[in-house]
Design a protein that fits this description.
This protein is of the alpha/beta class. The chain is 38% helix and 25% strand. The protein has 21 helices and 20 strands.
Length: 538
């Protein structure tokens, strides 16, 4: 029997006397890929961090035996001085968000060289070339130039590749990867997974992957361990657990893929358009290098000539990767950014200037509302739920009495599944007192208060756990059926598009590559980029 590379037994983690991880056992074999799966708050990240004692103010007990090149060591009990020799050398870690994990004051090359100097003692004369080679091994383009870049000068995928290069600098035996692809576009996600798989096989490295993405687990891992509320509820081979989940929570996770429950458009029906756009062009001013910049500014075109109609009670799904122009198009639709071309809402056009601009646009702002990606940052932390949800009425119907406003706020909250019985003192609570899914329900209630005809949904579920994501999508589907709402849905998630959209528009670098009915775009895509997007989600 092969001896485990890492064997964890009775791991318990507590903060201020409250236990959050309850005596879990698991092991990782040499060269194995184990996925630790669960939703936010399940304890999976804190479990990985505790193995290297990277959690402050935590009481950790149990054992974590690691077979290092120098012999067997117990990670949880060894002195900090000796553990420093393990961190980064024998066990490395990729953190979830590379932008915050990388030092913004040093170039990528400098940060990789620092590891080579501290952990391997390489001379300065050869560190630079070694760092460039590590970047090249991760498939990053122009590694010599990228090594001289600061983190903010790289894309998300490039930053993640740089993090992988740093983690693999010392050829560790075990890699802890904490949601390494969550912040990435679907095609980049596939590239990173393939890269990790290649490097894992090449170096004979074991990987402990922390994730909530079941598509990722199915494609990457050998075994899966499922956590719920600090308890390891199930583990086994990926194929076995996916085919025959034994625990109710595992079954719930497997059943969390978005399902379609919308009113389909009648065949050959010509429904009235709520929003119409023709040749919409969105651009941003940029500085021009050299002396020419003294006299003029340049232009970055984010959206080039987009045209579409959104019928009443229908959803237009706009899909594309980061930088494709999706959010810029949404800002134009909301009248929050200047644009060229024609864009009308319920027969009214945005007033782009003039003395009465605000008054003329007020009616359109009532007809089109928005639900943002992150409800925590889009809801004011200084306002109560009653103030947040009722704010739209104060603007658009200022003569309504306070008692009526309160009743309408309660009705809107009931529509999104939140009642005062379920949440005592609901109206006087603040956003931070609710979970992510509950905050998004509050954001939807706020948007519904002025009875809009169209909602702009900017990645409305990407910040949520998979089971909560399904609940929010079901809520949006029900509201669309009951209110005949139209949606402009901005997303990079093909599964969300399949569940929600009637029409689909594919954006890349600001250009509409193809558009049409859902079945045509998703099942028979014509453009190679669309085919890549669809394949990356399978």
């Amino acid at each position: 029997m092969i001896q485990p590379l890492l064997s964890v037994k009775d791991l318990r983690i507590s903060f201020a006397g409250k236990e959050v991880v309850h005596g879990i056992d698991f092991s990782v074999a040499p060269g194995e890929k184990l996925a630790l799966v669960g939703e936010s708050g399940s304890g999976k990240t804190i479990t990985a961090l505790s193995l290297l004692r990277l959690v402050q103010n935590a009481k950790v007990s149990g054992t974590a035996v690691f077979q290092s090149p120098k012999g067997e060591v117990e990670l949880l009990g060894m002195p900090e001085r000796l553990l420093r020799g393990i961190r980064g050398q024998d066990i490395a870690m990729i953190f979830q968000e590379p932008m915050t994990a990388l030092n913004p004051l040093f170039t990528i090359g400098n940060q990789i060289e620092e590891i080579l100097a501290l952990k391997q003692g390489l001379a300065q004369s050869i560190r630079a070339q070694a760092a460039i080679k590590l970047l090249a091994d991760t498939g990053i383009t122009e590694p010599e130039r990228r090594a001289k870049c600061f983190p903010h000068q790289l894309s998300g995928g490039q930053r993640q590749r740089a993090m992988i290069a740093m983690a693999l600098a010392c050829k560790p035996k075990l890699l802890l990867a904490d949601e390494p692809t969550t912040a990435l576009d679907v095609t980049v996600r596939t590239q990173i997974l393939d890269l990790l798989g290649d490097l894992q096989r090449k170096n004979g490295m074991a990987v402990l992957m922390i994730t909530h993405d079941l598509n990722l687990v199915r494609r990457f891992a050998d075994r899966i361990a499922v956590m719920e509320n600090g308890v390891l509820v199930e583990q086994g081979a990926v194929a076995d657990v996916f085919a025959r989940p034994q625990h109710a929570y595992t079954s719930k996770l497997m059943d969390s893929k978005p399902t379609r429950d919308v009113n389909e458009a009648p065949a050959n029906a010509h429904l009235p358009a709520v929003m119409q756009a023709k040749n919409v062009r969105v651009s941003y001013p940029i500085s021009v290098p050299g002396f020419k910049g003294w006299f003029k500014t340049g232009e970055f075109v984010a959206v080039q000539g987009a045209s579409f109609d959104i019928p009443a009670g229908q959803t237009l799904g706009v899909i594309g990767e980061s930088g494709s122009g999706k959010s810029s198009l949404a800002l134009a639709a909301l009248g929050l950014h200047p644009f060229k071309g024609d864009l009308s809402m319920a027969g009214m056009k945005w007033n782009k200037g003039g003395r009465n601009k605000a008054a003329n646009n007020k009616a359109i702002r009532k007809a089109v509302q928005v639900v943002f990606q992150d409800p925590f940052s889009s809801l004011s932390p200084r306002m109560t739920v009653e103030q947040v949800v009722g704010e739209g009425l104060a603007v658009h119907q200022p003569n309504i009495k306070a008692a009526e406003t309160q009743q309408r706020v309660l009705q809107a909250l009931r529509e999104v599944g939140m009642t005062d019985t379920q949440f005592p003192g609901l109206l006087q609570r603040y956003p931070h007192e609710f979970s992510g899914g509950q905050r998004q329900r509050i954001a939807i209630a706020r948007a519904l208060m002025v009875e809009p005809q169209l909602l702009v949904l900017d990645e409305p579920t990407s910040a949520l756990d998979v089971t909560i994501q399904k609940q929010i999508l079901q809520l949006l589907q029900r509201l669309q059926r009951e209110r005949a709402l139209s949606y402009l849905l901005i997303t990079h998630d093909v599964d969300v598009i399949r569940a929600m959209a009637h029409q689909v528009m594919v954006l890349k670098d600001g250009v509409v590559l193809e558009a049409g009915p859902l079945a045509q775009i998703m099942d028979s895509p014509e453009h190679p980029y669309t085919r890549t997007l669809v394949a990356a989600q399978l």
